[in-house]
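Prompt: May I have another protein with tokenized structure?
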Amino acid sequence: MGAGAGARIDGIRCAADLGVSSEPEPANFDQRYGGSADANGAAVFERTAAPAAGSDATQVDAAYSWCARLARSHYENFTIASWLMPREMRRHVHAIYAYARIADDFADEDGSLARLNEWQHELELAYSGSPRHPVMVAIADTARRYEIPPEPFLDLLKAFRRDVVFEGFETIADLLEYARYSANPVGRLVLYLFGYRDAERQRLSDLICSGLQLANFWQDVAVDFAKGRIYFPRHDMKQYGVTADNLCDGQVTAGFINLMRHEILRARKMLLAGAALSTLVGRGLRRDVLMFAGGGLAILRAIERRGYDVFHARPELTRLDYVKLGWHALGGRLQL
């Protein structure tokens, strides 16, 4: 499950152990690609004429370690969810995270469609058996092991391209269509890791991922506005009499409160409906499903506790909130 930043990747952060790795440090990759995994994603992408030896076990282990380091460097204060993901799955989630992280930096930091196109070319090379970048060495191995098609990875790039030329959304249908590419692929990738490929589980996963992305959007109204992005559908803003000037001024008007109530209600319904996925998966994934759905619901409650004022302080979950979520998830329960 998860949500894809720009095309958000917060959801991936909550699915992996980003703080602990027993794998060796892959200095050879840092040297080959002209950068460190500790830099931002855009900075570490350096193409090379010499293809990586993706079939070599040592090289593959080094690639996964490289991805883990990139993940750790971006989210050092990882949550309780880190130990809910089965250990054998973490390296694969690291790879998925690293793939999305670098693409996200191309969109948000570079604003470069050309670099996103290059990243897609690297993905195509990985699927053809000739990966070059360490992330793609790991992705190629993960895709082969779990028979993952390229479509979810390609869909994420569609969302990142839309971030580069961001135009906002006219209706909720338009926003959910964006989430189809920015958030839902992450949940489907996780389902593939656990061997689930059917339409019903994917549908429920999509509800969680889209609902969690909406929760992130309403949590980050001020943060996104500062980046020139408004995720509220224009139709909804007009319906409740909210303008871009209101958002710019940080005005928590009656109209804004009603708009937030409207959007939060939709997100909550999606998360609650999607949580039924927890009854259709094994224990190894059930806890993460409950953690993601419960986390989205907790974000919505945090917004409500602040009286919908997302301008003067970002509504955030505390460590205690994460402990409660983890405790409920371990017990097979959704925290409402």
